[in-house]
Amino acid sequence: MFVRGLKRKCFDGEEDIEGTLAGIKAIPSYNLQRQSLLDMSLVKLQLCHMLVEPNLCRSVLIANTVRQIQEEMTQDGTWQMINTQSTGQASLDRLVSTDILCRSSREQAEGKHVPGYSTFNKDFEGDQAQDSLETMSTASSVQAPRNLQSNVWEMENPQENKGNFQKSLDQIFETLENKSPNSVEDLFSEVDNSYYDLDTMLTGMMSNTKTGHCDGLETFSSPTTATSSSNCKSDLNELDHIVEILVES
Amino acid sequence: SLAGFGNLMQDVLWCFSQVKGTIDIGVTEADIISTVEFNHTGELLATGDKGGRVVIFQREQESKHQPHRRGEYNVYSTFQSHEPEFDYLKSLEIEEKINKIRWLPQQNAAYFLLSTNDKTVKLWKVSERDKRPEGYNLKDEDGRLRDPSMITMLRVPVLRPMDLMVEATPRRVFANAHTYHINSISVNSDYETYMSADDLRINLWNFEITNQSFNIVDIKPANMEELTEVITAAEFHPHHCNTFVYSSSKGTIRLCDMRTSALCDRHAKFFEEPEDPSNRSFFSEIISSISDVKFSHSGRYIMTRDYLTVKVWDLNMENRPMETYQVHDYLRSKLCSLYENDCIFDKFECVWNGSDSVIMTGSYNNFFRMFDRNTKRDVTLEASRENSKPRAILKPRKVCVGGKRRKDEISVDSLDFSKKILHTAWHPSENIIAVAATNNLYIFQDKVN
């Protein structure tokens, strides 16, 4: 059950190596493990799209973990470094031993400060098409989700993928939210088609199936084929179209 | 007697009493027990399962012929409480799994309990029928209607004894009030109201009114992208009907007073243990998420369960818990693996004994732990078929953390993480405990001398 893998060679029996922050950052295994944790977390969030409503508590905790990693990577400047790292298939098989991650930060490095999380960057409210993530490198931000769906991302213009990682977290939450509308108005709220496309690509599930009750709505255009993870999105689009037509008539 | 776990003279010895459920190797998912609860006298023990069924056990009267055997629990009533539903609006299934059962105090011959799945709370009446009327005028014994013109005489129907029948009828259905998944229900001490809590909201109900509930807590942000914290559990104070607490995924507990305002958005008290910044890791928040909160019977303390510990808080001290007990600290170095296989999100419950001197909670490998608050001693016991001989004394178990493993110890890597004890219950006044191990219900009692 437990992941075997990369032993903490750098740390075994060498307490004195827990030195400077630079010293820690020079050791690739911590970053690798952190990246591995990030990949795992993103996969977990995407796998929430099951037949039953996802567990909101679990999703929130995972999303908070992702934010925490992201913030630390941003502060460390290692977000840039992702570009240079190998971007092989991010399957769970390649997860490395995460002993380092399980140790407290005091154990890892003297004086290493792990930032607390702030609330989500409010720049992303509303219009996801805008890139307002100034702090992230545009090219390297492709890499995090790229690990998950490498063939899909390669088709994308890097320019469009500015801040995609940040967006992806938003959209995962948006998807969760849209699965739990708290009023009828939410169902008919405007859905940004470009957001829908991103969501489709992010999940990478390109199944052609729609749920039964959507079959009668084929006359309405939908951005892409519905995926099992974004059936709700396609439903919203189609409902949106229906309302438009009803209102006009 | 309200013996604590360990008085000065002698420790309580726990013995196997009964086990309910099948021994099949493959467990039917529907049979997995999802909640366990004694009623206020301890006479009844209810379980709910993933298949939406409720099974109620009743304690047999103690036999004079067998003074060494305490009353056994046998099936009293079984009924289907919730059915699976489909939410067409969201294209999602609504599970029939029973998340919680809470008993109402008994006020007449019938028993009442609340059972809930993710969306709907139901009030069930469980009553006995041991007589039936015979001698109707308008229908014959088979129930067929008689032709009124053929009736020449009238008689008064009489009640005749019949075999005992236990009926469960749904008296109230409280639906359509929760957008998110209900995690807790709690009966108020006024016995007129109760609350139901989901991830983001808590509603107050009157038992008599099903088409209306009052929202008393709402932590849903205007923009769901800002959501970083959810409600994980909630409970009314056992004596003060205006007071309740709710816990969060960030390890905080809020105590609210309903007298201050209709919407209890501002807490009267806020309990949080300051984080040790040197102990911080990527999993710190997840393991601080509180999975259960329980008032002590006295109402003076609250107990919380997070992934690795149980904490007891004094209501008068908000800045840190009074007591912290390590449930399975050997898992601290395995958190990433437990995150990978989702075990880190397991929600363990915790319970008080009748005198509030001992607390109990579950762990993995079908282990469960008890902590004596007075003697500070703790014990690990196991619910397993191997220890299931009548009145067999349970042997304490020990997990070996490293180095040499002793003969009876089990190493951390050998623990079975699919065997988790999430739900336990303690009889309100005696040393009888019910432990749910997947699809089996174990009942243990202290040794009778």
UniProtKB/TrEMBL annotation, chain A:
GO cellular component, one term: nucleus
Domain SERTA: 30-77
Alphabetical list of PROSITE patterns matching this protein: SERTA
InterPro entries, per database record: E2F-SERTA_domain_protein (IPR052262), SERTA_dom (IPR009263)
Protein name: CDCA4 protein
Organism: Rostratula benghalensis (greater painted-snipe)
From TrEMBL, chain B:
Gene3D superfamilies membership: YVTN repeat-like/Quinoprotein amine dehydrogenase (2.130.10.10)
A GO term for molecular function: protein phosphatase regulator activity
UniProt organism field: Rostratula benghalensis (greater painted-snipe)
Family: Belongs to the phosphatase 2A regulatory subunit B family.
GO CC term (a single one): protein phosphatase type 2A complex
Repeat found in the keyword field: yes
Keywords: Repeat, WD repeat
Protein name: Serine/threonine-protein phosphatase 2A 55 kDa regulatory subunit B
